[in-house]
């Protein structure tokens, strides 16, 4: 067995769960394994306390904001263990103490018997709360559990407003105000330095804007192996990380030739945006395409002369399209349609002709997305679109701000309409009609002109090498993001899109 096959067999795909999985895990632990809820809460709270202790020193004050549900109960267990570890603890109850029941009530009564201060927030002034916060070395957000959603209200909202701007903050399971099922934030939300979550990472920990509020995320157990109390569910999401890329990457065989490594046709560039064609070509070749054909106006040719590996086809009028398709339609399995194409009448004709061609798979990027609403999407063609938030907003008919707040919903909606969608941006999302994923790599180094052109070419190359559309988008997105990370070791500013492309072999070399 080859080394890469051994790596493949040993690598496990990372998954993100919904809040319902955590609820089901607790229920299963209690019903099937007869573990009392008090023990589950004890294990969760104790593990969270260990992290809180690592963020503070003996004698420091830790302020715990506790809700009236089980998340607050975890915070109450934390209070007891932090007292044991030599921290001064003060606990605010954000709600009516009479509503606290079960294991949470048991732990509240223990704290009271220990004389640890437990104060209902409704009984004190804002000034009193702020004074307690200012005296603290750490604030713990144990207000709401992972199943909470919607706008915050009452004392919970007051608590979140009170700790706004304070650092460090540790959140139990998830930052209050973030919907753990999709990462949305409807109003105010806690911004945490560390989130300690039970059983598994949740979707909202990795999907923006939730990820921005989650800080570093650590997963802890509740006293039983997670795979005993969790089941694979339809609402799970793939975390596209190094392990996923190792499994899904289409490795090059010893007896490969240039056509078996993938042949991609790029329809890119225009008089106004000639560089986009060159950058897409670099992305395709650096990502492993055996053959890269570029169809573009003659004005683009000087911009790709430094890439002699590119096969250039003149595309100055729609009359030249049949010749290009006749020559390459049988070899190229994927067409990348749109980077730098422009929005002229000729651009529209070019888009329409290639869209209507017999090429089975098409990546639509850049200006191609401008013409996409006019296209007939009833064909059997496989489509993969790569919009940024502004382009997604136009396709959805939404304001861009709404797209930024509901990224997962948008990616899923566009996938349902077109086939596969890679929604670019922080924590890029991939959705198809059968799967969802979020890219774990990338940083602000990628936010430069031409970066998306490189990505489109890379995705086209990977798809032409035999990947599924979802995997091509996932691999391309992660590799592109990792290339940006490598560049940022020098500086996050001043990097060029061409440098992102040239880092791709270094990323691949570090994987295998």
From TrEMBL:
<dbReference type="InterPro" id="IPR000631">
    <property type="entry name" value="CARKD"/>
</dbReference>
<feature type="domain" description="YjeF C-terminal">
    <location>
        <begin position="241"/>
        <end position="511"/>
    </location>
</feature>
<keyword id="KW-0630">Potassium</keyword>
<dbReference type="Pfam" id="PF03853">
    <property type="entry name" value="YjeF_N"/>
</dbReference>
<feature type="binding site">
    <location>
        <begin position="145"/>
        <end position="151"/>
    </location>
    <ligand>
        <name>(6S)-NADPHX</name>
    </ligand>
</feature>
<keyword id="KW-0511">Multifunctional enzyme</keyword>
<keyword id="KW-0521">NADP</keyword>
<dbReference type="GO" id="GO:0005524">
    <property type="term" value="F:ATP binding"/>
</dbReference>
<comment type="function">
    <text>Catalyzes the dehydration of the S-form of NAD(P)HX at the expense of ADP, which is converted to AMP. Together with NAD(P)HX epimerase, which catalyzes the epimerization of the S- and R-forms, the enzyme allows the repair of both epimers of NAD(P)HX, a damaged form of NAD(P)H that is a result of enzymatic or heat-dependent hydration.</text>
</comment>
<dbReference type="GO" id="GO:0046872">
    <property type="term" value="F:metal ion binding"/>
</dbReference>
<feature type="binding site">
    <location>
        <position position="276"/>
    </location>
    <ligand>
        <name>(6S)-NADPHX</name>
    </ligand>
</feature>
<comment type="function">
    <text>Bifunctional enzyme that catalyzes the epimerization of the S- and R-forms of NAD(P)HX and the dehydration of the S-form of NAD(P)HX at the expense of ADP, which is converted to AMP. This allows the repair of both epimers of NAD(P)HX, a damaged form of NAD(P)H that is a result of enzymatic or heat-dependent hydration.</text>
</comment>
<feature type="binding site">
    <location>
        <position position="141"/>
    </location>
    <ligand>
        <name>K(+)</name>
    </ligand>
</feature>
<feature type="domain" description="YjeF N-terminal">
    <location>
        <begin position="22"/>
        <end position="230"/>
    </location>
</feature>
<dbReference type="InterPro" id="IPR029056">
    <property type="entry name" value="Ribokinase-like"/>
</dbReference>
<keyword id="KW-0413">Isomerase</keyword>
<feature type="binding site">
    <location>
        <position position="340"/>
    </location>
    <ligand>
        <name>(6S)-NADPHX</name>
    </ligand>
</feature>
<dbReference type="InterPro" id="IPR030677">
    <property type="entry name" value="Nnr"/>
</dbReference>
<dbReference type="GO" id="GO:0052856">
    <property type="term" value="F:NAD(P)HX epimerase activity"/>
</dbReference>
<feature type="binding site">
    <location>
        <position position="71"/>
    </location>
    <ligand>
        <name>K(+)</name>
    </ligand>
</feature>
<dbReference type="InterPro" id="IPR036652">
    <property type="entry name" value="YjeF_N_dom_sf"/>
</dbReference>
<comment type="similarity">
    <text>Belongs to the NnrD/CARKD family.</text>
</comment>
<feature type="binding site">
    <location>
        <position position="453"/>
    </location>
    <ligand>
        <name>(6S)-NADPHX</name>
    </ligand>
</feature>
<feature type="binding site">
    <location>
        <begin position="70"/>
        <end position="74"/>
    </location>
    <ligand>
        <name>(6S)-NADPHX</name>
    </ligand>
</feature>
<feature type="binding site">
    <location>
        <position position="173"/>
    </location>
    <ligand>
        <name>(6S)-NADPHX</name>
    </ligand>
</feature>
<comment type="similarity">
    <text>In the N-terminal section; belongs to the NnrE/AIBP family.</text>
</comment>
<keyword id="KW-0456">Lyase</keyword>
<feature type="binding site">
    <location>
        <position position="388"/>
    </location>
    <ligand>
        <name>(6S)-NADPHX</name>
    </ligand>
</feature>
<comment type="subunit">
    <text>Homotetramer.</text>
</comment>
<keyword id="KW-0520">NAD</keyword>
<feature type="binding site">
    <location>
        <position position="452"/>
    </location>
    <ligand>
        <name>AMP</name>
    </ligand>
</feature>
<dbReference type="GO" id="GO:0046496">
    <property type="term" value="P:nicotinamide nucleotide metabolic process"/>
</dbReference>
<keyword id="KW-0547">Nucleotide-binding</keyword>
<dbReference type="Pfam" id="PF01256">
    <property type="entry name" value="Carb_kinase"/>
</dbReference>
<keyword id="KW-0479">Metal-binding</keyword>
<dbReference type="GO" id="GO:0052855">
    <property type="term" value="F:ADP-dependent NAD(P)H-hydrate dehydratase activity"/>
</dbReference>
<dbReference type="GO" id="GO:0110051">
    <property type="term" value="P:metabolite repair"/>
</dbReference>
<feature type="binding site">
    <location>
        <begin position="424"/>
        <end position="428"/>
    </location>
    <ligand>
        <name>AMP</name>
    </ligand>
</feature>
<feature type="binding site">
    <location>
        <position position="176"/>
    </location>
    <ligand>
        <name>K(+)</name>
    </ligand>
</feature>
<keyword id="KW-0067">ATP-binding</keyword>
<dbReference type="InterPro" id="IPR017953">
    <property type="entry name" value="Carbohydrate_kinase_pred_CS"/>
</dbReference>
<dbReference type="InterPro" id="IPR004443">
    <property type="entry name" value="YjeF_N_dom"/>
</dbReference>
């Amino acid at each position: 067995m080859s080394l890469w096959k051994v790596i493949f067999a040993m690598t496990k795909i990372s998954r993100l769960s919904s809040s319902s999985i955590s609820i089901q895990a607790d229920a299963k632990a209690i019903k099937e394994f007869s573990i009392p809820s008090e023990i589950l809460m004890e294990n969760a709270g104790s593990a969270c306390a260990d992290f809180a202790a690592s963020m503070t020193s003996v004698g420091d004050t830790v302020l715990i904001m506790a809700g009236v549900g089980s998340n607050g109960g975890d915070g109450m267990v934390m209070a007891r263990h932090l007292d044991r570890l030599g921290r001064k603890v003060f606990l605010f109850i954000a709600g009516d103490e009479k509503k606290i029941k079960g294991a949470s009530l048991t732990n509240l009564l223990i704290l009271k018997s220990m004389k640890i201060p437990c104060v209902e927030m409704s009984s004190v002034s804002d000034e009193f709360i702020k004074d307690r916060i200012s005296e603290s070395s750490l604030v713990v957000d144990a207000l709401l559990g992972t199943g909470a959603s919607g706008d915050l209200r009452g004392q919970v909202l007051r608590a979140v407003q009170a700790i706004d701007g304070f650092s460090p903050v540790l959140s139990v399971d998830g930052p209050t105000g973030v919907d753990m099922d999709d990462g949305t934030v409807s109003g105010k939300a806690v911004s945490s330095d560390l989130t300690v979550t039970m059983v598994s990472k949740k979707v909202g920990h990795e999907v923006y804007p939730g990820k921005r509020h989650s800080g570093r995320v650590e997963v802890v157990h509740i006293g039983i192996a997670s795979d005993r109390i969790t089941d694979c569910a339809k609402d799970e999401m793939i975390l596209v990380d190094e392990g996923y890329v190792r499994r899904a990457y289409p490795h090059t065989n010893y007896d490969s030739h240039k056509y078996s490594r993938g042949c991609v046709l790029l329809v890119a560039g225009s008089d106004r945006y000639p560089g986009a064609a060159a950058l897409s070509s670099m992305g395709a070749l650096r990502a492993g395409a055996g053959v890269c054909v570029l169809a573009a106006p003659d004005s683009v040719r000087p911009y790709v002369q430094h890439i002699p590996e590119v096969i250039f086809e003149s595309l100055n009028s729609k009359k030249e399209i049949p010749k290009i398709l006749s020559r390459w339609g049988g070899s190229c399995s994927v067409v990348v349609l749109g980077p730098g194409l422009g929005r002229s009448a000729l651009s529209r004709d070019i888009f329409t002709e290639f869209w209507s061609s017999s090429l089975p798979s098409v990546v639509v990027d850049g200006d191609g997305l401008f013409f996409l609403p006019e296209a007939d999407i009833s064909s059997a063609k496989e489509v993969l679109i790569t919009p940024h938030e502004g382009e997604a907003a136009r396709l959805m008919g939404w304001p861009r701000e709404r797209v930024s707040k509901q990224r997962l919903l948008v990616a899923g909606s566009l996938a349902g309409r077109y086939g596969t969608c890679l929604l670019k941006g922080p924590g890029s999302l991939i959705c198809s009609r059968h799967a969802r994923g979020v890219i774990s790599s990338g940083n602000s180094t990628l936010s430069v002109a031409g970066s998306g052109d490189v990505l489109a070419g890379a995705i086209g190359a990977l798809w032409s090498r035999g990947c599924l559309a979802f995997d091509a988008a996932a691999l391309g997105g992660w590799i592109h993001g990792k290339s940006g990370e490598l560049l940022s070791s020098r500086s996050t500013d001043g990097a060029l899109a061409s440098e992102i492309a040239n880092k791709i072999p270094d990323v691949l070399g570090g994987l295998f």
